[in-house]
Specification:
With 137 residues, this protein is of the alpha+beta class. The protein is built from 3 helices and 5 strands; from the N terminus they run H-E-E-E-H-E-E-H. Helix 2 crosses helix 3. The protein starts with a helix and ends with a helix. The structure holds guanosine-5'-monophosphate. Guanosine-5'-monophosphate binds next to helix 1 and strand 2. Guanosine-5'-monophosphate (5GP) binds next to helix 1 and strand 2.
């Protein structure tokens, strides 16, 4: 049975897409800790990031780097923070979080509630920045 993230990447479950190619997919986290909180996943299913082959790990990291650059351009922030946990969804994913300060990386505080319009506005800006920088592949 496909994971929830595979179903998102396949378009079966809606998401706020930031970037997509044949191997990777990036989309807004539904319960963001900061505006623009994004998840980057490989399309190939694998539970634990450090079980990826060297090539797949490098490919995911390089795709996440491009997504981070697009987020930086689209969301006011000082930096893009990076986190990997994977305790909730058993499909490898990298969290990219636009931050102004260290405490913006706090996963324990109450999650933000952004409206669908706010989420789609952020996603549209970030996707446009990604496409401008890297083409739509
Ligand atoms: P982790 O597995 O790294 O502990 O956390 C999983 C992350 O996936 C959480 O931040 C959670 O909000 C996010 N998430 C879980 N289900 C969905 C979903 O259906 N759609 C989206 N966009 N994000 C999800």
């Amino acid at each position: 049975m496909p994971t929830i993230f595979s179903r998102i990447a396949n378009g079966e479950i809606p998401s706020y897409r930031i970037a997509s190619d044949d191997s990777y997919y990036a989309f807004l986290d539904i319960n963001p800790v900061a505006p623009g909180h994004t998840l980057v996943i490989p399309r190939k299913e694998n539970d634990y990031i450090f079980d990826l082959s060297d090539a797949d790990y490098a490919g995911l990291a390089l795709f996440a780097k491009k997504v981070a650059k697009a987020l930086e351009a689209a969301v006011p922030c000082k930096r893009i923070g990076v986190a990997v946990m994977g305790l909730e969804v058993p499909h490898t994913h990298i969290h990219l979080i636009p931050i102004q300060k260290e405490s913006d990386m706090n996963f324990f505080r109450e999650k933000l509630t952004l409206s669908p319009e706010e989420m789609s506005g952020i996603a549209a800006k970030a996707e446009a920045a990604f496409n401008e920088m890297y083409g739509n592949k």
